[in-house]
Structures are given as C-alpha cells and as structure tokens.
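Re: folding output
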Amino acid sequence: MTLKLGMVGGGQGAFIGGVHRMAARLDGRWELVAGALSSNPARAAASAADLGIAPDRSYSDFAQMALAEVSRPDGIDAVAIVTPNHLHAKVATAFLRAGIAIICDKPMTATLAEAEELAALAAETSVPFVLTQTYTGYPMVREARRMIAEGAIGAVRHVQVEYLQDWLAGPVEQSGQKQAVWRTDPHMSGEGGCIADIGTHAVNLATFVTGLGLQAVLADLTAFEPGRRLDDNAAVLLRFDGGAKGMSWASQITPGTKNALRFRIAGERGGLAWDQENPDLLEFTPLGETTRLMRRGDGLTQTPSRIPSGHPEGYLEAFATLYADAADLIEGNGLASTRALATAED
C-alpha cells in the first residue's frame, strides 16, 4: 500500500524539504500528492508544479490545506512539516486537530511552552506524531542500541557524544545565505541556535542508544561569532537515570568538521563507539579484550538493512528508515521498529 503524503514548507531552494521527499520515495511507501510549499502563493504554485502536484492540491496556506485534505476521500495520510522552526507548532496543531498524522522535522517547536502544548494535544488526539531524529535510522546505531539493551557492555557508566560542524565559523548570515539567515534569527529558529539545530541530534543519540532518560543537564551556550544572536557552540554535562553521566558538545564553528556526529559509550563490561562519517562501522570492545570492528551486514550484526555489506548506507537511507517506520505506525502494523521513532512526548 502506498500512503499519501502532504508537505508544508520545502519549496524551491529549500534543503530539508528535498531530503524528506527523497527519503519518503526510497522504499515506495509514500507518494507526495499535496503541499503548502511556500507562504508566497506564486512560489507555492511553482514549487508544486515542479514536483507534479496537481494544482487543486497546491495550497498557499497550511490551515486551508489541513481542512481541505481531511475533507477529501483521497486526503493525505500524513503531513511532513519542513518549515523553519518557528512555524512547527502552528502547523502541527492545525493538522493534529484535523486528525492527520504528523512527520515533523526537528526541533519539534521553537520554545518549551509550545512543546508542552503540542505534546498535550498529540496525547489528547492520539494522532501519530513522528519527529525525524535522522541518525536513529542508521543500522549500526540501532545495532548499538540492541547490544546495550541485551547487556553487551553491562550497565552504562558514561556517554560522550558530539556533533561538530564549521559552516558558521564566519559571519555567514551577513552574506544572505538562506540557511544561515533563518538559523541565526531567534524569531525563526526559536530560543536555540546550534543547540536546536544539531545539539538535539547529539543528545537524542545518547538517549536513544543507551535507552536512558535524562535527569539533569548543565549547559554552557556561547555565541562566539561577534554579533550573532543565537548560540553557535554548546557544551553540556549530562546526568542520566540510574547514575550514568555524560557530556555533549555541539558546535558549528569548529574548523575542519562537516557533520562529525560521534558517540562513545563506556559500560561496566565494555564499550561502543560510532562515527556518522563512517556509518557502516561500529567499534565494540569487551572489557579486557581486543577491539572488534563490526561492519553492517557482516553476519555478526542482527539489525537488517537494505543493501549488501560494502555498499555504503548513509544519510538518505537513515532518513528513509524513519519514513518506513512511520508508514508501519500509520498502517498499524505494530512492528518493533516503530518503537524506535521519536514522539511528541520524547
């Protein structure tokens, strides 16, 4: 069964909208049929035409789209929200109230108050809400999660996670670069800069892989670039349920890094390490033994993937895994993989 997808945001020139569309198509589970791709009517119509969306299902207003689609016998099964952060809550609220499932890019909202309201609405309506924490879709990340849950390294003692980039090491937003402009504007990005853009991924990875909830944080957020209004570097101490400790470093001003998302986890009987830029490999070191380099699909790993070992499986495939999981969730298949999805409550 092919599910029908709508999209809000992601029009011409947008990066993340294109990523969502490619991911949704990869496994043949979704077809994009409707969209409010821009708040500018002309750009919305042109973007829809580029993507083959019928003119009567191209909208310039997301609230109108929610009402129209829920009234159609062939209405969408879910909406992908890929707008700047400040619109996530408004868009999600409109579609939750219409009873349409949500696939929302992170962060869920721009403020904590919005997040609490949205989580309450999602619980009240029982409409599926999926937050696309992309990196949880990598097979070897899920393999690490499985190993920890099965006791391969014993009780977790310490988690080190970092996500480093260098693209904001200069005053990029002053050049008019679209991604930099909205990500450094508190009116569009919300209260967090780097911490909202990539720090959320780092901390999510720490909790996802270990299965531990966060108990407390101590954060030092800094805007190193002169005149920048939001943080571009975040150093955070973490305390987890059960006594485990950790550290998270998120930075967009670290020269020589691009998408350096990594974790290292110390357990009482062993350790695990993973690097997003070499995603098919997982380092496993039982205490007192030689380090084992586990390769996706090598016969030792148990987490399934799409392609034979040796053919790299990367970012788009990880994103597509979330869309496949979301399809399972919405179709009610009840597969175990759907429990790996981030919800509004998460």
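--- second protein (sequence, then structure) ---
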Amino acid sequence: MRISPPRPVSCGIFLTYKCTSECKHCMYASSPRWRADWITESDLSRILSQLSGKIVPAPRGKRAVGINYGIHFTGGEPFLNFKLLLRAVETASSYGLPSIFVETNSFWCVDDSLAREKLKELKEAGLNGVLVSVNPFLIEYVPFERIDRAIKICREIFGENLMIYQETFYHQFRSLRLRGTLSFSRYLEIFGLPGLSYIELLPMGRTCYKLRDLFVKYPAKYFLGENCRAELLREWHTHIDNYGNYITGYCGGLSLGDARELDELLERGIDLDERPILKALMNNLGELYRFAVREFNYVEKEDGYISKCDLCLDIRRHIIQNSGKFIELSPREFYFHLC
C-alpha cells in the first residue's frame, strides 16, 4: 500500500534539536541535553535545492514573511551556530526561495551592538525577517531583557517583517517590568490559567508529559477510533529536521521519509508496508494500540490521555524503548527528551 506524501508549500528546516531551553510545551522535545548534531551544509544544499520552486511566498510578496509561509530556519535554537545559520540563509537565497525567516528564543541578545551586527549580517545574506518567541515557558530560561532587546533591534532592521510569537505575552511581561526570568508557577500566580488562553498550547510533544495537569484526561478507548491521516497528509506546512526526516502535522519523532531525496519521495510515495506504525496511524489508533499491547506489552496510563496525540506519542515512546526496527520512529533521541 502506498500513499503520496504532501508536497511542501511552506517549510521549516531544523538546524539542530539542541536548544538553550527545555520548554515544557515544546513539540519537538528540544533541550540542552541533545547532542549538537548540526545539519550539514551539503544536506542543506540538497534539501533547499529541491524545495526551490515548491515554496509559496507570504501574501505580501516573496520578501515579506508569515508564520506559515515561505521557508524558515528553526530547531532547537539556530543561533547556537551562527556561522551555519548564515550559510543556510545564503544558500536559501541563492536558490530563490521566498519569505526566508529565522525563529529564535533570543538567548544570544546580550548586547545591542552584537545583536545589531548579527542581524544586519543575516539581512545582507538574504534573510527577510525574524520570528521572536515569547511565552510563559521560554521566559523560564531566557531573561526578558534579551527578548526585549531582540524585538527592538529586529523591528529597527526588519520593520514589519518582525513577528512576535506571541505578542500578548510580550506585553504581559512588559507590564510587570520584568527583569531576568520568571518561573511558570510564578506566572500562574500572577495571571492564572486564563493568562494561557492566548497561547496555542497544542496537546502534543512535551506538553503531554510536563503540562498534562492543565488538561482533562480520557481513557484510551475514547481515541481508538480516530486516525492521523489528516495530520500526516497535511499540505500547508511541513518540517525537515537536521537528520533529513520529513515531518508533517507537528508530529515530532515520526518521519515520512528522507527529505534529502525529496523529489524522489514525492514521486514514488511511501510504501506503508515498510512503515507499519505509519500504516496503523493512517487507519486508526486502535490498530496501533492493539499492536503495542500484543507485541510490546504496552499498558494504558491509569490517569488517561489529554488527546489522541498523547496516546499516539506514549505508544510510540514505549515501542522505541523496546525496539529499534521501525524506521519511521526517527530520530530515536526525540523519545528520550520528552520527560
């Protein structure tokens, strides 16, 4: 049985999974504990060359940016390797890719002149904009003055091509006249749970383990009739990690194939008989659940699951801890940085 993977119209490229932060809501389980496995320049070139001609620019044009448009460099934290980030921007620009931006947590913005120098260099290399992350989980690790500095200097250099994700939290922290970091527990004391209503807190990734107390939970049977077809075949946004894994639907640790051979992957499709986990997810979660119980003695969580993604992820995590034979469960290291 074969399926056709979605053709990328916008794409995020992971330079690494390594990050200076270990945010409780991270969908891709980024952490300082990851190995510093950076995407190679040759793989970057192979991937970007095949994305050329496929990526759709932002509505305002190819030099404008939008969160789910164009091409962006992410991770992990891409500024951990500025030389590679600069090369990535140059390469993307050389292939004529539109709406190029970088996503950052601003840890590196320790000085005005240094930040301005780096951002100007990136702009000259072809960077069109910057997305600065701001949320109650990141602020546990990155001092607010660095985030504030990044926003002010990015606005100076990139103008309306600065994206603040999410601006509500930026204004919340400014209203506190915050200096330094702020624990999540302290954030809840100040703003309460309603303060989180502005964040897109997707019930997947590390959220399933670190923030599960914020959600209502259900037994496994509640989700067994559902499948993940829509997420796996979603066309509007994809990611490619530093190992070449082609990822859709924000489904960390689940690879549709090798994006270094993207044109071939799109042409020949995916043989689901070679990827039984993917095959089960295309049908229903009950199939994956029964397989995990039968083959790997999976035991349902006593307190239930916050979403179908929670159930899927916990099953996959259990399988990877007991088997190394499923090529679609990649990268393996993802499953060991969730908790």
